Amino acid sequence: AQSIGGGGGTGGGASGSAAGKLAVSLKLGGKGGIGGSGGDVTVTNTAAGVITTWGDGSHGILAQSIGGGGGTGGGASGSAAGKLAVSLKLGGKGGIGGSGGDVTVTNTA
User: Fold this and answer.
1) Buried b vs exposed e over 61-85: b needs ≥16 C-beta within 10 Å?
2) DSSP secondary structure code for residue 21 in this structure
C-alpha cells in the first residue's frame, strides 16, 4: 500500500537582451511549485489473513507514504551590449518538497 504526492511544477524561465549606449538587462526566473504530500496509509492484516511470499527479498507487507519532490526553479539567461552594459540574471528558487503521511501497519496473523 502506498501514497505518493505529486512533484511541484517548474518555474518559468526568463531570457532576453539589451543593446545601445546604455544597455541594462535584468532577468528573473520563476519559482518552482510546492510538491504534494503523500496521504496516510493504513494496512490491517487479521488472524484469518495468511501472508506467503516466494523468493529472496520478498515483502510480506509493504506500506509507505512518500512526499513529492519540490519543483525546479526557472532559469535565466540573456546579455547586454553597449558602451555601458549591465546584465543581471537570477534563476528562480526551487519549490519545497511535500511531506509523507502517517503509515500504520497492524498484523495480528
Assistant:
1) eeeebbbbbbbbbbbbeeebeeeeb
2) S
* End-to-end Cα spacing for the chain: 18
Mean pLDDT in consecutive groups of 10 residues from the start of the chain, 109 residues: 89 88 88 93 84 88 91 90 87 91 88
Looking at the DSSP bridge assignments, the partners of residue 27 are 89
Instruction: Record the cell numbers describing residue 82, joined without a space.
Output: 553597449
The rounded distance, in Å, linking the Cα atoms of 109 and 106 is: 9
> What's residue 61's pLDDT?
86
Judge contact between 12 and 77, C-beta under 8 A. Answer: no
